[in-house]
Amino acid sequence: MFVLKGKTAIVTGGTRGIGLSIVKTFLDNGANVALLGSRQNSVESTLSKISQYKDRVIGLWPDLMNPEEVKRDFEKVKNRFGSVDILANNAGLSSRTSLYDYTLEEFQKVMDLNVTAVFVCSQAAARIMKEQGGGCIICTSSMVGEYGQPSGCSYPASKFAVNGLVKSLSRELAKDHIRVNAVAPGVTRTDMLSALPKEMVDRISADIPLGRVGEPEDIANAYLFLASDAASYITGQVVKVDGGARV
Length: 247
Fold this sequence. Notes:
Distance between the termini: 34 Å
Order of helices and strands: EHEHEHEHEHHEHHHE
Helix content: 40-55%
Structural class: alpha/beta
Number of strands: 7
Largest sheet: 7 strands, parallel
Mean pLDDT: 94
Strand content: 5-15%
Strand order of the largest sheet: 3-2-1-4-5-6-7
């Protein structure tokens, strides 16, 4: 039911962590995938690690805040695979800086990647999807997009904004048969979490009703569902994948 055979997905932030898990999950379920990263070397390194999919995956590294670069590369994907059916807006940047220590430059850097890039990529993808008769856009939100966090206010602010974009775009693009949803991960085993001491991770896990932190695959599976035809009547939703955590 969740097979994506014949569909083409673009995944931003696709070189590691949740993004790479989304890439692999989409590939394992039949999709063609363009994985996007911030640097050519990281993209090429990731492609070498998934060379078994080489006929169905390509890598690109546009500046996601540059509409012309994004448009150019999205057209490359369309020309290579014939369509752009799925956009996974996963690229993002976190922050834990105190309000008292924030610089405007740091605040804006988070907002640019987490919000402006989502707008730019969604616009480029939607233009292609409208012409071909539909598609779906999925964005990575966060549990802090509902609850906030005690420092690094730009990150939850950006995820609140992502949720707003999802709600608004889902209403605007429905007439063009484009669904727009988000996945809001809870505490997930990414590079940042893996660097923490085991006792700290155990303490965090104890506060999650399901008793463990999330794995990147848990988030990718939610993406797979929302990208599939099984979710054809779902739009405008922010799907929590947090083990039942409530802050």
